[in-house]
Amino acid sequence: MTAYQDDIKHFDQVCKDAGSAWAAISPEYAARMKLQNRFKTGLDIAQYTADIMRADMAAYDADSSQYTQSLGCWHGFIGQQKLIAIKKHFGTTKKKYLYLSGWMIAALRSEFGPLPDQSMHEKTSVPALIEELYTFLRQADARELGGLFSQLDDATDAAKKAEIQAKIDNFDTHVVPIIADIDAGFGNAEATYLLAKKMIEAGACAIQIENQVSDEKQCGHQDGKVTVPHADFLAKINAVRYAFLELGIDNGIIVARTDSLGAGLTKQIAVTNEPGDLGDLYNSFLDGDVISGADDIANGDVVVKANGKLLKPKRLASGLFQFKAGSGVDRVVLDCITSLQNGADLLWIETEKPHVGQIAEMVNRIREVVPNAKLVYNNSPSFNWTLNFRQQVFDAWQQAGKDVSSFDRAALMSADYDSTELAQEADERIRTFQADAARDAGIFHHLITLPTYHTAALSTDNLAKEYFGEAGMLGYVAGVQRKEIRQGIACVKHQNMSGSDIGDDHKEYFSGEAALKAGGKHNTMNQF
Questions:
Q1: Total-model pTM
Q2: 3-459 — its CATH code?
Q3: Per the CB 3.0–4.6 Å rule, which of 14, 287, 324, 335 could disulfide with 258?
Q4: Domain boundaries in the chain?
Q5: 174: phi then psi, degrees, rounded to nearest 5
Q6: Angle at 517 between CA 512 and CA 521, to 5 degrees
């Protein structure tokens, strides 16, 4: 007997035990509503998705072709449509996640209006978006199951009924893991813990935290990034772990992000107790002048002992200290090893370009110490992918002795090069980037932080250009609606997508034949 049939049997007994007062309650309808609301709390979702993500991590360790992917979504509807599309095109949601981008929350969800990615938005907007995303994903489950129930009711053939019943019994939920951005924790370790709890209670199974200073936090692709000593960052990793454990999500995932590759500054000199400890290693990267005595110290100078010598670190007018030029890769490797050795599960290395060789160089060094180290990687829209990969091909050809005299390396973005062999090879490298990087650079999860920010702008531009121009209404019909119909976009029936059919089902459950339904023959949605 299936779980659905078991629930019907259970509710049948419950109704019988309640007596005649519950005579109007249908055990089958109750079973349907229970199945349409599989996840009762955010913690149910967090545990379910943590189990999925842990299984996916193990699968990747065994076979690097089993990497995972996600797209950043700034609204529950966008996340819902993404998962509906994935199920339509691929038949399953397996290995497909959602990414919650702090950048998009700042730009699109703050009560202050659009903000830069500098942790100025309300911290409560982070768990609020997680809850919103899962509300829409759960509604997608209810909508699809409601359609299957209607098909089951309409089926007259036993074989057809069995086929539909199998789809119900093996239903693939739209609820998938969310990797959620907590920025630098929005304050001290206690503030990080409190916010992490809210995020987990909303459903997050994976929390990404970065090693920047909270009050100086910058987008990973902006200048002026300032990192913190390892002890400060590890305290926040511990805070997130305690939040997971307190809420019963023992296998929650922590993604430790390092911005050290592009961060040339620190706000603090690390505390060190003995030569070679973590604080001493952090301080060894400071840029400055070796001095011999007090005569080399001016008023207000700071001096530290590092590598057995007195160092006067270079201090900027802002009070920040500067790292040695060219030390970024070494700091990244130290950051990553330290994070994995102190409770992090996955790494995030923010880079300035998408280059498999560059990422692999760092990951290989990390794996000398932590063999199963693996990354979450930002396939960022901040990269000019076309120019980057055309230049990579140009450089490879030049190194191989191939004639590149017909190309201007600085101008390779030009459409004049689109049909060239160089451009075609670059596009092929872009196409295979995720598989190549998963295989060669330890990337378990590929994401794009803010793709739906760009797609919303692009589609709106196209519609505005046509609708307000000579095309008029044809701009919408040809550019949107006709494509929706022919591509099988479920949202063309927008009343259904917004829940009208679910509401009609409930009206029938509650009122029987007296129900006043919205989906009758005069509903214009029936034109589709």
A1: 0.93
A2: 3.20.20.60
A3: 335
A4: 3-459, 470-527
A5: -80, -10
A6: 125
Q: How far apart are CA 221 and CA 342, in angstroms?
A: 26
Q: Which residue spans within 168-313 are E strands per DSSP?
A: 178-181, 206-210, 226-227, 253-258, 265-266, 288-291, 304-306, 309-313
Strands 226-227 and 321-322, bridge-based pairing? unpaired
Q: Provide Rg for the chain, Cα atoms.
A: 28
Q: Which residue has the tokens 């659009």?
A: 114
247: its two tokens: 């809420």
Is 181 assigned to a binding site? yes
- The token pair that represents 351 in the structure block: 């880079």
The Cα–Cα gap between 503 and 348 comes to 43
Strands (E), 239-335: 253-258, 265-266, 288-291, 304-306, 309-313, 321-322
365: which residues sit within 8 A by CB, 6+ positions away?
333
Catalytic residue from among 15, 73, 205, 219: 219
The string of pLDDT tens digits covering residues 379-425 is 999 999 999 999 999 999 999 999 999 999 999 999 999 999 999 99
Name the pLDDT band for 305 (thresholds 50, 70, 90): confident
User: CB-based contacts of 484: which residues, under 8 Å, 6+ apart?
Assistant: 491, 492
* Helix (H) or strand (E) segment spanning residue 452: helix 451-467
Is residue 219 annotated as part of the catalytic site, yes or no? yes
Look up residue 33 and give its two tokens.
């509503």
**What are the tokens at 26?**
């249908």
Distance CA 366, CA 346 (A): 12
**Lowest pLDDT segment from 69-73, 405-409, 484-488:** 484-488
